[in-house]
Design goal:
By secondary structure, this protein is of the alpha+beta class. It contains 5 helices and 3 strands; from the N terminus they run αααβαβαβ.
């Protein structure tokens, strides 16, 4: 646990991370992951999930993958509110 905390201490403060939002970083990373899965040949799908309160997350995942389960609607009591996605490898 201490080693994990040491790595966290090297992260920039949240005010700097906010400046990195909306620059296409996540889209590029997920795109590369989907391409990797396709090139490897051993993957049937890429699984993604997010919480709806994460800024921009649902719109991003909806543009890259197919919703397979929205716990808010499909799990009794709303589950933990997670929305699950799958994307085919390319």
């Amino acid at each position: 646990m201490a080693a994990h905390l040491d790595r966290l201490q090297g992260l920039p403060p949240a005010r700097h991370v906010a400046k990195l939002r909306r620059r296409g970083l996540a889209r590029r990373l997920v795109g590369q992951l989907i391409e990797f899965a396709g090139a490897d040949g051993g993957y049937q799908a890429v699984y993604l999930h997010t919480y709806p309160h994460s800024p921009g997350a649902l719109a991003l995942w909806d543009s890259l993958a197919t919703r397979v389960c929205d716990e808010r609607r499909e799990v009794p009591g709303g589950g933990s509110g997670v929305v699950h996605f799958e994307a085919p490898p390319r």
